[in-house]
UniProtKB/TrEMBL annotation:
<dbReference type="GO" id="GO:0044877">
    <property type="term" value="F:protein-containing complex binding"/>
</dbReference>
<feature type="domain" description="NAD-dependent epimerase/dehydratase">
    <location>
        <begin position="50"/>
        <end position="206"/>
    </location>
</feature>
<dbReference type="GO" id="GO:0005739">
    <property type="term" value="C:mitochondrion"/>
</dbReference>
<dbReference type="InterPro" id="IPR001509">
    <property type="entry name" value="Epimerase_deHydtase"/>
</dbReference>
<protein>
    <recommendedName>
        <fullName>NAD-dependent epimerase/dehydratase domain-containing protein</fullName>
    </recommendedName>
</protein>
<dbReference type="InterPro" id="IPR051207">
    <property type="entry name" value="ComplexI_NDUFA9_subunit"/>
</dbReference>
<dbReference type="InterPro" id="IPR036291">
    <property type="entry name" value="NAD(P)-bd_dom_sf"/>
</dbReference>
<dbReference type="Pfam" id="PF01370">
    <property type="entry name" value="Epimerase"/>
</dbReference>
Length: 365
């Protein structure tokens, strides 16, 4: 029987995992030490314990995946058990901790973040329900989470807002997002506010929605400008904030280009190889009435406030991507990935030809 000397075993572990060094130690506000260990990747131990509220949403799923691959222990609060099942394979054994919570129950919120050093708040909703209006979902809930986080001694609080958040906006959703920022800052002064632009990706409400319901994107004759950003870029930027904090700052993360809905509809048509929609442009008043009627169904539909947002241009502000260490990618780079399924069988593998972009004088780049 062959035996291995203890010194050889220690040498093998040192070569594979590496020794701990000074850069493995991070001291958070309050002198709380964070020590990472193990090989980089899925089975690493970053030393961080993070809570992601709103993890079952579009952005939250990608953020949890990014954090799990970094070896971070992630607490994922959920309301529906079925929605939380997808988190099981996103981290090594014991790294993804699922916990039930209620946004109106302080005790469950405290239990979800009591032992965390970083808290991400992605909770929000761009339509109203019978239980939560815009203010309750996007402002008051954020204030409650931030207040409890401050009381529990959380070192870093990251509030995800929206690029167009403004107290003077005609959209109640954008108003609520702006109010949420103010309320969070009032109870957690060192909080980081992140304002991403409209996000696209798998199962999004942007590119895939244009492929299914192009008529609602023709509002304002498609001349509304937007700055779409890849959801993976935003998720990576948020994950980087865990190790490279930006305390008390407001970071904007818009897409790299400003485009019109008209161009994006042409892009979707060229990628899916489906003819452009010939549906007429619906007047704003008619669209608002139809949206109000649509609120009687039991599934999410176009809301009256969303009709208002289709007439609001995205904010023309510089991005802070350097602060989060990410270079955002253009929408054309990923369009075929998310739209190929709308092609017919005979066109499935045909090459992609993008429409020409509007002249710079018409659309600011």
């Amino acid at each position: 029987m062959i035996t291995t000397a203890p010194k050889m075993m220690r040498l093998q572990r040192t070569i594979i995992a590496g020794k701990r060094a000074y850069h493995d130690l991070v001291t958070l506000p309050g002198s709380k030490p964070i020590v990472s260990s193990g090989p980089p990747g899925y089975s690493a131990v970053s030393g961080h314990r993070v809570t992601v509220f709103g993890c079952t949403g579009f952005l939250g799923r990608y953020l949890v995946s990014k954090l799990g691959k970094m070896g971070t222990q992630v607490i994922v609060p959920f309301r529906d058990e079925d929605e939380a099942r997808l988190f099981k394979p996103m981290g090594d054994l014991g790294q993804i901790v699922r916990m039930g919570w209620d946004m109106r129950d302080d005790q469950t919120i405290a239990e979800c973040l009591r032992h965390s050093d970083t808290v991400y708040n992605l909770v929000g909703r761009d339509y109203e329900t019978k239980n939560y209006d815009f203010r309750a979902a996007n402002a008051l809930g954020s204030e409650r989470i931030a207040k409890i986080a401050a009381e529990c001694g959380v070192s870093q609080f990251i509030q995800v807002s929206h690029l167009n958040a403004s107290k003077t906006s005609p959209s109640k959703f954008y108003q609520a997002k702006a109010e949420g920022e103010e309320l969070v800052k009032a109870v957690f002064p060192s909080a980081t506010i992140v304002r991403p632009g409209p996000m696209f990706g798998y199962e999004d409400k942007f590119l895939t929605n244009m492929a299914v319901w192009p008529i609602w994107w023709k509002l304002n004759h498609g001349q509304t400008t937007t700055r779409p950003v890849h959801v993976m870029d935003v998720a990576q930027g948020l994950a980087n904030l865990m190790t490279n904090p930006q305390f008390s700052k407001t970071l904007t993360l818009p897409g790299p280009s400003t485009l019109t809905y008209e161009y994006l509809l042409e892009l979707v048509s060229s990628v899916t190889l489906q003819p452009a929609s010939r549906a007429p442009v619906v007047p704003k008043g008619v669209a608002t009435v139809l949206a109000k009627i649509g609120q009687n169904v039991w599934w999410p539909s176009l809301s009256p406030d969303e009709v208002t947002r289709r007439y609001i241009d995205d904010a023309d502000v510089p991005g802070d991507w350097d602060a989060v260490g990410v270079q955002p990618s253009e929408i054309e780079t990923h369009a075929i990935t998310y739209l190929r399924r709308y092609r017919s069988a005979e066109n499935y593998v045909r090459p992609v030809v993008f429409p020409p972009r509007p002249a710079p004088s018409l659309v600011a780049e």
